Fold:
Amino acid sequence: MNIGNLSKIALKALLNNKMRAFLTMLGIIIGVASVITMIAIGQGSKMSIRAQISEMGSNIIMIHPGGERRAGVRMDPSEMQTLKIENYETLRNECVFISGISPLVNSSGQLVSGNNNYPSSVSGVGLDYLNIRQLKISDGEMFSASDIQTSAKVCVIGKTIADNLFPDGGDPVGKTIRFNQVPFRVVGVLESKGYNSMGMDQDDIVLAPYTTVMKRLLAVTYLESIFASALSEEMTDLATEEISSILRREHKLKDTDANDFEIRSQQELSQMLNTTTDLMTTLLACIAGISLIVGGIGIMNIMYVSVTERTKEIGLRMSVGAKGSDILAQFLIEAVIISITGGIIGVLTGFGASLGVKFIARWPVFIQPWSVILSFAVCTVTGIFFGWYPAKKAADLDPIDALRYE
Amino acid sequence: MNKSVIELIDIRRDFTVGDETVHALRGVSFSISEGEFVTIMGTSGSGKSTLLNILGCLDTPTGGEYYLDGISVRKMSKSQRAVLRNRKIGFVFQNYNLLAKTTALENVELPLMYNSKIGTSERRERAKQALKAVGLENRMEHKSNQMSGGQMQRVAIARALVNDPAVILADEATGNLDTRTSFEILVLLQQLHAEGRTIIFVTHNPEIARYSCRNIKLTDGHIVEDTLNQNILSAADTLAGLPVEND
Structure:
């Protein structure tokens, strides 16, 4: 049978009853639009969380001392002295899965410049720290390797520090600030990063060579932590294992001993947060999926009623030579046209709603191409699936009874 | 004698209602030649509707043989009969059965829509010809709800003509129309007959029989009368003789 003619017949039948066709579509429109919007909201929040995490640095691996016991008492990690500068150097020389590594020691106190002062802490770091934390110098420059070697009293400061110590807007580079009576020469100012997702000011930061902080401020020989950055997100696990085995060897741990250090990676954090947002996306998609099914049932409902209502028409079509399969095809095509048109309107509505959410509620929104394709495919299948039963019913009518139906 | 279009041999049709078997047709035999205008008469319950359904290939007989234009219908499947109806039969119903909200032209095109051998332009052309043949060339784009009963029945006749059928089956085609319009339709049918169409007109109205050339009368599933009309009246003359309504 000629599909072209049947499509014409089906289209004509729909156009003759625009209101009914629209009402039938409504369920599909709402279903598709909500699937797209819900997934867009879910994906949007996932992406914004991801962006916030990557703001913290690239593929960060954090190594802290830990697990040490003295006479059965667990120690505060900050008092542990298991991470040595030699460990850092070994890791720096031996690890292949990391792109950068830096020690970290902190000393808190009061910063003073002229008659301005500000409470903060100085972080003793290596040169790689900038790349690991994705920090950039906006004015001046980073301290040098020779500054580290000579434990030079130089520092790089964040914008918050610069604003507080030099409120008149003077260029801090080249000036000297004092930290707990120790003078530091400012060699650079960091680019502003603003607040992170935890509400911490990322510009409240002073970086100095770790040797300076260890020797001149803290007078210690151990490290608080070591920051490293894996070559890529996928290599985070390899890098973690590598670091762990090197440290175990360096710390001369037996196979049965527990680690006396802890390794945390950014990946763990992002995985944890992803689980939450994935759960939310799934939940939203389920709700939207249910509305799509309800939309499909709506199609079946109205098609079913319409078959009864159009019994006489079906009888006539059969009497002028429509086969059962022609009637079946006509009603199926009607169902498919309804669901595809509804799908298209739904996609457009979904886009509109997503943009509305983005601009009115200011939520992060990301329209997933696969959600559009998926919901479209689902609604076409829904149309065929739910259109089949009424169409079959129409096709199985006896022309004599159908013609006589009042 | 012309070639026979319809050949019924001992047609029987039984229906089972509950435990009872109803014999609607108890052995009906006749043949209709090309170009005949036959009325089939009978009171309700005489089996004329059943006979019409069988003639129209909507139903198959329980026993006997039916040849339509030389083709045996009895063993045909549902969809084979649908194709046969599409090519060989034109139906005209009492209540017109036009598609709602659809133009006259599209209504007439309908049977050809189910014939994939006929393209769009040919379909349109043939539908126009058919509408011209029933005198509705000025009403082609009118929708079914914008026409009078007589006009709708003309559209239905055009639809029956459009596939150039072997036989036109009219089922009480004037039953819903007033006297004047009825005669107009009869004039049209007589005119088509004069052009060589084969027409079977099923009715319970004995008046109609006077305008056909042959009359078959059914009672209780049997043919009780099969007579040629020696004095065929002209519907056009009768129409001219009708008093003119002043409204």
About this structure: Chain A touches chain B through 24 residues (CB under 8 Å). Chain A has two domains: 3-52+272-404, 83-259. Chain A has a mean pLDDT of 85. Chain A has 13 helices and twelve strands.
